Amino acid sequence: MAYIIKIKVRYQNDQTGRTIKLPALWTESGVLVSHLRYLADNSKKSSSWKEKSTQAVKLLIEYINANVGLFKKTTKLLASFARALEEGTLDPRTLKDPSQLFWLPKSSEHCSDLLFLITDYTDWLTRQSDFKIKLANPFRQATSAEQRMNWCAFHNKRNRVFLNHLVDPDKHVEALSTIREVTGPQRPTENIAPAKRFPEDKIDLLMKAGFIILNTKKSDMPRPDYKGQALTLLMHYGGLRKSEALHLYLSDIILDEKKSEAIVRVYHPSNGKSPDEQYPTRKQFLAIHYGLLPRTEYLKTERLHLGWKNPVLDNKDGYFSVQFFPPHKAAEFLSVWIKYLKEQRTDPDSSHDHPYAFTNSKGEPETLKNAQRLHKSAVERIGLLHRKLVGTSEHGHRHSYGYRLRENGFNQIEIQKCMHHRSPDSCLVYIQPTHEEIRQKMSIIDKSSLH
Which of 190, 246, 278, 397 has the most CB atoms in a 10 Å sphere around its CB? Predict the structure, then answer.
C-alpha cells in the first residue's frame, strides 16, 4: 500500500564523518533519496525552507498516490495538483472526497509557494546525471501581457539590487519571453497593510506588572522578571526580532563606560567573528569549545533551533549594532541586564557549557518556545489578548520600533538602516499608518483649515 511520512535523518555524503540533520520523506519504497540530496545541496538555506520544501513534495506524492494512472503527462498532473491545492478536494455540497485527501482550499499565496518549491526540486532533478527526465514544469512562450509582467518584475528587482548598473537587461531577453507551463493562481492585488504594533500606552505596564515572577508562598511579594524585561527592551526599543535576541552571546553585550549604557552587537550565527581569537568564526568556536552547532543549523523541530532573517551587517566582523530609540533606553537596558546577571541568570554547568546570554531555569540556552510562553503570560497578566492580529505578539514590538522612528521624523533610508533591512521598501509595512490614524488626521485638518 502506498504511503508517505515525514521523518528526520542524518545525511552523510562523504567519508569525513560530517553529517547534517535533514527532514526526509519515507515511502513504501524507502527514503526519497533524490529529495534528500536536493536538500543537502541547499544546506545553506534555512530550516524553515527545508521543512516547506519537504511538505510541498509530500503533498504532491500524496496526490499522485490518490490518482494513480489518471495522468499520462506530468504537466497535466501538476496542473491538476495546483487546482486541488487552490480549490480543495472536498465536494462542498456532499462533503465527500473519493480521493481520501480531504484537503481544504489554500490561499493563492500558499498555492504559488508550494508550486514554486516543487518546480525548483524537479528542475534540480533534470540537472542530475543519474536522472534522465524532462522538466516537470517546462517553459512555454509567454503572451505579450505575460512578457510585460516579466519585465516589470525584472526591473523592479534590479532597482533593488546592489551594483544594479552591472545588470545587462539584454542578456535576460530570452528568459523574460518565456513562462512556466503550470503557474499558481493569480494573487490578488494588495496594498501594503499597516503592521500591528504593540500599544505604546501599555508598554510600561507590561514591563512593571507583566514581567513578574510569582513566588510559591502567597505571602511573598512577586519579583521582577529581568530576563523578560531585557528581551522586551531589545525588541521594543532596539527593534530586534526575538530570534536575534536569543542568538546573543554574553560577550555581545558590552558596557559603554563613558555613557553608562549598553552596546549590543548581533553577530551572524555562523560566520560572525568568534569571541575567542583562536577561531575565525562562531561556527568553529561553538564546535570546538562546546560541541554545538550554530542555532540556525538545528532542525526546526529541535529545541535549540532559531531562525535568521539575513539582516544587513554593518561591520566587517559580521555583526550589526542595536540602535536603541529613544537612546536613553540603552541605559535602562543595561540596568535590567545587570540585575538579570546578578540575581536571576542560571549559569550552565561545566558539562553543558555554552556562550549564550539568556538561559532557562536549568542553565540551558533559552528556547524560542519558552521565551514566547513567558511573553504571552506577561501580556495576559495585564489584561491583554496575546494575538499577532492586534500587535501583542513578540513581533509587535519591532513594529512599534519602526513606527516610532517614522513618527519622530526618520526618513525611509534611515529606518532601513536602523532595522537592518536589505531593501528600503521592507520597512513600509512597519511605518504605514492605520485607518484610524488617517481618519484622525483628516478630522484635525477638517477642523483647523476647512472651516
Answer: 397
Neighbour tally for 307: CB within 10 Å: 19
CB atoms within 10 A of CB 409: 7
316-369 pLDDT, tens digit per residue, is 999 999 999 999 999 999 999 999 999 999 999 999 999 999 999 999 999 999
CB contact at 8 A, 46 and 308 = yes
Amino acid at 342: K
Q: Which residues contact 108 (CB under 8 A, 6 or more apart)?
A: 86, 184, 185, 186, 187, 188
Domain that holds residue 16: 4-136
The CATH code of the domain that includes 295 is 1.10.443.10
> Could you read off the pLDDT of 208-260 as tens digits, one per residue?
999 999 876 665 788 999 999 999 999 999 999 999 999 999 999 999 999 99
CA 136 to chain centre: 29
Closest to 401 measured CA to CA, from 189, 214, 244: 244
Same domain, 291 and 427: yes
Q: How many domains does the chain have?
A: 2
269 and 406 together in one domain: yes
Q: Are residues 112 and 227 in the same domain?
A: no
Q: What is the pTM of this model?
A: 0.75
- Cα–Cα dist 56/288, whole Å: 36
Contact 111, 86 (CB under 8 A): yes
Amino acid, single-letter form, for residue 321: S
- pLDDT surpassing 60 at residue 126: yes
Grid cell digits, residue 248 = 546573543
Q: How is 299-356 classified by DSSP, letter by letter?
A: -TTSTT------PPP-BTTTEEE---SSTTHHHHHHHHHHHIIIIIPPPPPGGG---B
Looking at the domain assignment, is residue 357 inside a domain? yes
Percent of the residues in the chain that have a pLDDT greater than 90, as a whole number = 56
Q: Quick one: CA torsion of 50, 55, 61, 66, rounded to 10 degrees?
A: 180
Among 116, 136, 156, the domain-final residue is 136
Closest CA to 307 of 257, 392, 371, 374: 371
**Co-location of 207 and 132 in the same domain:** no
68, part of any domain: yes
